[in-house]
Amino acid sequence: MTVEDLLAREAIRHVMAKYTTSGDRLRVDEFVSCFTEDAVIESEHVPADRAFRYEGKAAIRQWQERWLAGEGATHGATFVRHHLSTCRIDLKDADNAEARTYWVAWTDIGPDHSGYYLDRFRKSGEEWLIAHRRVRMDWEAPDSLFRSAIPNSRSGWT
């Protein structure tokens, strides 16, 4: 492993942390800055009524702005904290990487839902950004505060 590899991995970890903390705090500009212009974020392995797919920064921004505005009463949580754990980053070449990262979300009820991210990262200038994020949910609490969050934030869904 080279110094460049280590720097790339740390830059990718930084973007993952920025995505998580800005998403939990509804800091839309910071959240959207984690993505390439042509990025895709989508769910996988979830019930159809909670599936989502957004293509491009503009669509991702609109989705997050709906969350910030509380449109559709997205959820009843007073706080959300996503915790990242095991993460494997595979550098494919100087400008492309893939990662698999486990996560769990905590809300007012305690552990609320969990799963993993399957990511493709692309280097853009000096930054590593998310080019494609697949969000897979493995588990959710029976009384999860987020059961209605995705369906209620899908206005303008693509």
UniProtKB/TrEMBL annotation:
Any Pfam family = SnoaL_4
Matching InterPro entries, A to Z? NTF2-like_dom_sf (IPR032710), SnoaL-like (IPR037401)
Report domain SnoaL-like positions: 5-134
Highest taxon of the lineage: Bacteria
Name of this protein: Nuclear transport factor 2 family protein
